[in-house]
Amino acid sequence: MSETAAAEQQSPAIDARQLRKAFGKFATGVTVVTCRTPDGTPHGATVNAFTAVSLDPPLAQVTLIRGNKASQYLEDAPFAINIMAADQLATCLHFAGKPMKDAPAWRSDDGIPVLCGNAATIECKPWRIYDGGDHLIVIGEVIDLQINEADPLLFVSGKFREVGGFSGGSPWEASGDSMAMGWFEGSTSFPSF
Predict the structure, then answer these.
(1) What is the largest CA-CA distance in the chain?
(2) Sheet holding 135-147, edge to edge
(3) Of 13, 7, 19, which Cα lies nearest the Cα of 134?
(4) pLDDT tens across 7-38, in order?
(5) 88, containing H or E segment
(6) How does pLDDT run across 113-153, given as a tens digit for each residue?
């Protein structure tokens, strides 16, 4: 048996629909990534693939479908990650290709285009872009942020959701391995177990 045939026999083909369904079981927030087109017009795309990357330096990541207009505009350009509030469903749909009757409200300045009413906004300058198969992985260095008291909009199993009650009745104050708890404090090497 050839090496290629042996590898194919060991790795069954993954059904794209099933993979998408499995990925969809991971609940996420919803963002609209905004930037400017080459002519300076504000542009946005609804994205739920957002990740905090690093506190030092401050880095955030979004993953956009390759060929999406926003992914083309982010090459060496600043952008904002608008974390959608629970009452911004119409805005999310607008930037997902289902334009709403009322145009979204933009913050009035000439900087990075930012939407009004977000749960939080993270403004970034370009840091790195990586190949992610049919997506582009875009990492930005955080240069400004705003946080509001609004609950975020959630997305799971192909549907938008709102934040519910705390599991177990109270919030989890800190992870045992968080820097705030001191587990990593002062450590420079970590043994493998």
Answers:
(1) 65
(2) 42-47, 31-36, 79-83, 120-132, 135-147, 58-65, 50-55
(3) 19
(4) 556 667 887 888 776 766 656 789 999 999 99
(5) none
(6) 999 999 999 999 999 999 888 889 999 999 999 999 999 99
Helix residue ranges, H only, the chain: 3-10, 16-24, 69-73, 89-95
Contact at 8 Å (CB) between 139 and 53?
A: yes
Q: Which of 2-11, 13-22, 75-84 has the lowest mean pLDDT?
A: 2-11
Burial class (CB in 10 A: 0-12, 13-18, 19+), 155: buried
Residue 102 reports pLDDT greater than 70: yes
The C-alpha atoms of residue 154 and residue 86 are separated, in whole angstroms, by 8
Residue written as tokens 């959608």?
84
- The CA distance from 19 to 4, in Å, is 24
Q: Please determine, for residue 161, whether its predicted confidence score (pLDDT) is greater than 80.
A: no
Q: What are phi and psi of 21, to 5 degrees?
A: -65, -40
Structure tokens at 122: 């993270």
Helix, coil or strand: residue 65: strand
Cβ–Cβ under 8 Å, residues 63 and 138: yes
Integer Cα distance of 36 and 22 in angstroms: 33
